[in-house]
Amino acid sequence: MIDKEVIVIGAGLAGSEAAWQVANAGIPVKLVEMRPFKSTPAHHTGEFGELVCSNSFGALSSDRAAGLLQKELRFFNSLIVQTADKFSVPAGGALAVDRSKFSNALTEELSNHPLIEIKRFEQLDLPDKDNITILATGPLTSDELANKIQLFTGIGACHFFDAASPIIYGDTLDKEIVFKASRYDKGDPAYLNCPLDKNEYINFRNELIQGEQANLKDFDKESSNFFEACLPIEEIARRGVDTMRYGPLKSIGLWNPKWGDLFDRENRLKKRPHAIVQLRMEDLEGKLLNMVGFQTNLKWSEQKRIFRMIPGLEKAEFVRFGVMHRNTFLESPKLLLPTLQFIKRETLLAAGQITGTEGYAPAAAGGLLAGINASLLAMSKNPVTFPDESMIGSLINFISNRNQILSNQKKNKFQPMPASFGLVPELTKRIKDKKLRYKAYQERSTEALKGFKKILDSSFEKDHLIIKIN
């Protein structure tokens, strides 16, 4: 065991992953979490890794960007992804979790680790440079600490407004109207679907865009500072009569056997609903359901009134209404190295959504790299960067100073980024077929990471990356 301690501030997905990686390297960790001593506008519990928006980690298949990132994280024994796998719920071709069991398991695993000391208080300042510290406070960093970070960096924080969807009780649906199916019959029929005809859709949209909004502090409507990947459903509705129908309410690929033969084209065109609202299970029993794509800033009373207009939800009871909150992130390309160390202070690292990655798996990826590099620093060894060919490496390149080196568009405003094949280097040989091209990306990543892991393992006195979760 190394005597030097690593401090991890924040026990969200990135902080939990980072603490796990450091402790498994035989290095003591102090994990600081302000909840439940002090909460945030979006959290509901004091558990680690609480998922405040969706319960989905994205597509499972490794020929999709999110799926490839998950595969890479599994290869490095990610605590977050292994726990997600353990508590997954049916979600078609996506990895979704029972969020309560997921966060409870993370909390228990980290709390019982002999090298992790849990501290429940609000961190009001950055530890001094003699401490190896991982900043993983997320987009809901407390105001006081955010101000101290801004003073340290000399750069004002960026921000956008994010939102979460409502959750309803599964036993309050009208089962005569709602039907179970997955789009294009991929995987098990994991979603519950509420069909709307044209009149129902038009009336619903009208009420949605006229609904009374909750007041948001610091929100400037003229700046349109929503995050495009997580727009409120009413904002989507305002962009056009059919915008929702080509987004979260699209009906293509969903079919209720009660409507007749799916392969009878004339019947299919005649009976296909104008739009469909989907509900995704939050738990294996389907007791709790998430309204897919229904992030919202409507007042709670308006949510209850308007969402009950959806066929099958006329008597829906809400476990949690949708909320919107201000998310803060760093202008990371000006501040971070591709090792996730701050350019200004090598003993301070950052990870997770505060760095400008978007999504649960990308947050875990940042925690993984920060944890590995904090461990190496504690052992007086050189930090590492992931191969450019990997999804992890490409994502970290985007949010780090390497982005400034690789890009000719330095004047573009930095915005959060999810995992995307658009970030990875081009193949040496062009492949026109998209599926074959994505498969080639995946194969290239696998080969690059095998070599990288051999080098990484040799840097540690013991192979902490193969320790398994009980």
Structure description:
- It is a single chain.
- This protein is α/β, with parallel strands linked by helices and 470 residues long.
- The chain has two domains: 6-157 and 330-466, 3-Layer(bba) Sandwich (FAD/NAD(P)-binding domain); 164-323, Elongation Factor Tu (Ef-tu), domain 3 (Beta Barrel), CATH 2.40.30.
- The chain is 31% helix and 15% strand.
- The protein has helices at residues 13-23, 65-75, 79-86, 99-111, 143-153, 198-210, 233-238, 265-271, 300-307, 360-378, 391-399, 402-406, 434-459, and strands spanning 6-9, 29-32, 56-59, 88-89, 94-97, 116-119, 132-135, 158-164, 167-169, 179-181, 191-196, 275-281, 288-291, 318-320, 323-329, 348-350.
- Strands 10-11-12-13-9-14 form a six-stranded antiparallel sheet. It has a five-stranded parallel sheet with strand order 6-2-1-7-16, covered by helices on one side.
- Mean pLDDT is 87; it is low at 219-224 and 463-470.
In short:
31% of the residues lie in helices and 15% in strands. The protein is an alpha/beta fold and 470 residues long. The longest helix has 26 residues, at 434-459.
Number of strands: 16
Helix content: 25-40%
**CATH topology heading of the largest domain:** FAD/NAD(P)-binding domain
One letter per element, helices H and strands E, the order comes to EHEEHHEEHEEHEEEEHHHEEHEEEHHHH
The SS-based structural class is alpha/beta
